[in-house]
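pinned: reference chain
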Amino acid sequence: MDGEPFSLGLRRDADQALILGEPLGRGAMGVVRAVTRKSDGCTFALKTIPKAGPQSLAGQTPTGEAMTIWERKVRDEVSLHFALGASLDIVTLHDGFEDEAGVHLLIDLCDGGDLLSGASVAHSTEDEDNAVVPKNDDDDEEFSTDSSNSSNAAGVNCVGECWTPFSEATAAPMIRGMLRALAACHEHGVVHRDVKPANFLFTREPDGRNRLKLSDFGKFILIIVWAISMTPCFVNRFHEKSRFRFATKAIQSRT
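pinned: its C-alpha cells
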C-alpha cells in the first residue's frame, strides 16, 4: 500500500517526545512497548496500531473494504479514550501520536499482569494465610518438603498447582473499582462487551498499592440513551449533550 492510509490529526513528534523501551506484548492490533516521556521522566505504555491493518503484520495486503472497516475501528477507539478522559479505574490515554505507518497511543503502564495471572501481586498479608495447596494423594504429608516443588507468594511449597483466594478486605476495593469502571463507560453510552479477568490489568500506584484498570475496548459499541419523561399533557425526550456529541462523532465516522 502506497502512501499514508489515513490521518487522525494527532501529534507527529513521538521520536522527540518519547524514549522507546522493550516490547511488553504483541497482539492482533499491534505491539505495546514501555516508554519514558522525556519531558518529565514518567513511564508509560505505548500501544502502536498499524495503519495498514492487522493483515500487514502478516505480510498481507488488505482489501479496500477491509481498510475502511479498520480505519473506522481505529478512529472509534481513539475517540473513545479521549472521551472517557482520565480515570483511576480505566486505562487512560495520556497522549496520541501518529506517523505514516501507525497510530501510537500513550497509555497507563499496567505491568502487574491481569486479574488472573497477576493476582499474586494484589494479595495482602492476610490473604497469605488462606493459601490453598492441593494435596498429593501419593504423599502422607500435607506439604512436600522436596526442594524441587514450587512455592507460592506466601512461601508455601506447592504440590501441583496452588492458588491463594482473596480475603473480603482485599477483594472489596477491587470489585468497587471494576464497577466504577463499567459505570463510567455506561455514563458515556459505551458498552465494553468484553468484560473478563484478562482485561482488568494491575498497575502500581505511587504509594505502592496495586490498582485494577479496565482495558481493551476493541469490541465496544456505543448506544444513545433516551430519557423519557411522561406527564398527562406531554411526552418529553431529551439526552445529555456531551453524550450525544460523542455518539454522533463516532457514528459519523462509521458512515
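why pinned: Residues 124-162, 227-255 have pLDDT under 50 and may be disordered. DSSP finds four helices and eleven strands in the chain.
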